[in-house]
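FORM 7B: Structural annotation worksheet

SECTION A. Query
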Amino acid sequence: LPVQAGDQVFYPARPATITITGAVAANCQPAHVALQSPASYLKQCPKTSGASADHVHVIQADGHIETLGIAAWSQAAPSSLAPGAILFVPLADAVVRKAAPRFNEDAARFLATQLLPAPGTAP
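SECTION B. Predicted structure
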């Protein structure tokens, strides 16, 4: 729709952090460092005992989701995160396999739909 008198447009500022969430002791928001690997960020936020040791979901600020191997046997090619990206640490497959086999993928897709924080975009 065309902009009309009284309409407001909110443009979020460029984030300076990335968010690590999911099967972690507490959500973390380390500073974004250009070209730093997801594995380096993960070292800054302790995982819980139920966390997957095999992979992590990278959710870029534009909503693109990528699953990266983080185990020694499944390490993915180096990847970098955009400012505002989310690293979602999934629960181990053994934890969710019977009760909700698609839980981790569904949670990553949900996180990809969330807005960046900005004035007028409160949850």
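SECTION C. Observations
The CA atoms of residues 52 and 123 lie 28 Å apart. The chain has a mean pLDDT of 87.

SECTION D. Sign-off
Analyst initials: ____
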